[in-house]
Each structure stands twice: as C-alpha cells, then as structure tokens.
Description:
Layout: E1 4-10, H1 18-37, E2 43-48, E3 58-64, H2 66-73, H3 76-86, E4 93-97, H4 100-117
Antiparallel strand pairs: 1-3, 1-4, 2-3
Amino acid sequence: MASGALFVGWGEPVHGREKAALEIFNTSMEYWGRLQADGKIESFDVALLEPHGSDLGGFVLIRGTREQIDTLQHDEEWRRLIAAVRLRVEGVGAVDAIVDERLLAEIGYYQDAVSEIS
C-alpha cells in the first residue's frame, strides 16, 4: 500500500496551444505508465473534471512509497516534463498528498490537537 502520493492538478490549455496541450497530456500518460511498469511508482489515477466554476480542470494522483514520490519530484525527466506542461497548460501545480496509513495518522494528529483546545 502506498505511503506517499503526489497530486498534480491543471487547468485549461493556454489559448492557442490546445493541440500542444493534448500532445503533452498523451506524453504524460505514457510517462506515468512507464514509471509504473518500471516499478518507480505504484500506480496513478487520472481524472478530467466537468466544468464547475473553478480553474481545476483535471488531475493525476500518483501513488508510491514516500521515497518513490520524493525521488520522482527530484528526477530530471520529471522536472523537464513539468516545465513543458506549464508552457502549454494554465494552473499546473504539484503537491504532496496524504493517503492510506498516513491519512489515518494525520487525522489522529488533528483529533489530538482538537482535544487540546476543546
């Protein structure tokens, strides 16, 4: 079970770069699939969001060990891919996500903090 995760969200394609945005999306899907096949991540889930009045248009949740996620974020190929995506898509962001066992621990920390002020 994954002990780490990375949430990567994005918005709309840069106006005039819609074709390039679609191409980099496909490149990204291939990249994440290769990472999974090579055992560099455990899995990934991609979602496109229906229009909802926010700038978040879709996301990928990449799961792996905390070490895998840390290594990924410092990998040159990853950094180059993110740079290429940012030139084609608005609002690209990546943030560590808390999942699985770590989620239960974080909720416990929050419950402890609440009990201190209640």
